[in-house]
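Data availability (excerpt). The following record was deposited with the supplementary files.
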Amino acid sequence: MHVLLIEDDARLAAFITKALREEGHLVDHRSDGKDGLLQASLESYDLIILDRMLPSVDGLKILQTIRATGDLTPVLILSALGDLDERVKGLRAGGDDYLPKPFALSELLARAEVLGRRRPAPDEPARISIAGLDLDVVGRTVSRAGRRIELTNREFRILEFLARNAGRIVTRSMLLEHVWDYHFDPQTNIIDQHVSRLRQKLDRGFETSLVETVRGAGYTIRRSG
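Predicted structure:
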């Protein structure tokens, strides 16, 4: 995996870089926000690990700029600003995960591995329109029949996976693997709970349900509706 690390704390950056390289990853490090943003535009990466507070250009500004260009590279935000509001800001700006400082190196490596598996295929469209639904994958926005719908990061990922597989049955195991990164069934109704909340948001004000349950199999979004 090719990783871009943008972190101004030299000691922390050295630890992270060493740990990633020991895991077999290629790492480029930049300590300045402006240099990091430039580097992100020059090469293609499997993962960007981004500090929240940086010299020259703030981490959120870097993230917003990257997403505005259509770059879907997974981004793991690192920050000493760990309260709920700051985490929400980071995720809404386009971050895929948010790890407050201080953190265990083993957790960072695990999160990096998971995010590295999420990099979209080059031929996957950044915008999906189906059955009156419009998803902007880069901007992380959703609308149905022109009405904006606010979703959590998890709900968005569920909907995106269902929409990319429209017309097919998506099993609970498939959602666990692609949205939760579980390769086993934890024997809970976690999927049903999230899909139920997603449905409530998508269907509010509409007569027809967008996400259908296929009894004994999973879920599907029809290609028309």
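Summary of structural features: The chain is about 40% helix and 20% strand.
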